[in-house]
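Possible regression after last week's pipeline update?

I re-ran a chain I had predicted before the update to compare outputs. Posting the input and the new output here so someone can diff against the archived version. Not blocking, just want to make sure nothing changed silently.
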Amino acid sequence: MSTSRWFVVGLCSLGLAAGGVAWWVRFDATRQSLEFWDPIGAQLLVEQADLAVRDLPDGDWQELAQAKGLVHMQHFLALDRSFDWTVTPDPAATDWRWQFRLHKGERAAEFAVSGDCLAIGRVDKTGGFHRTVSCAPIAKSLTDYFTALGLIAPEKPADEAR
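New output (post-update):
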């Protein structure tokens, strides 16, 4: 074989190796999240399914399909680094504020977020919790996003509070 053919073979091999490494890095960055969300929930996050929210305990569902930043929120919820996997909040002792439903067609997955945005829990079909985890690493981002959506009233500056 000529030198140019070896060069092309080398480039193709390098491209395949780089693709494999990229796939593994992405898989490794989402492994625990995929287990947390289960196959249906994870697929709905990746597909960027529609999202609805309601205040707990008995608010009405409100669609967030056109909300700005929704794609980014779903992306962060699929990453392992968004959660502190060493902390498992007690569902009974947590002040759950919102329930979210990812849905597309007949498929749906529900989760709840605490009022301080420090805990997230997968809601099962009976309304109980399948699993809970700390989302402290993204709590400030969730708080800012929920404020932008109008789910949290914006804080008044200290001089206006008087």
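Follow-up from reviewer: compared with the archived run. Helices lie at 3-46, 70-77, 139-149. Marking as no regression found.
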